[in-house]
Amino acid sequence: MHKEVKLLKKIKINLVFIVELTTGHFYLGSSIDLGRRFSHYFSRGFLKNSKHKSIIYNSLLKNGYSNFSLEIIEYCDKESCIERENFF
Q1: SS3 for 5?
Q2: pLDDT tens digits for 29-47?
């Protein structure tokens, strides 16, 4: 899994779609540094101790990583990232 995170550190701006497989709930987000974002997602310590308790953090902790599916739906430039996120 860490090889994938290292590879994703090279990808800078993108839109991601994460689905919780057991409930069908989904998260659509954008990230300027997906590698860093995933490093946070895969760090249980970060998720538990983060000042910003997000829905996705709590769900990852509660349900485990194997209950999620992730898809990178688009690569975009920094200027249009939020616009593209709102489009979806």
Answers
A1: helix
A2: 888 777 788 888 888 888 8
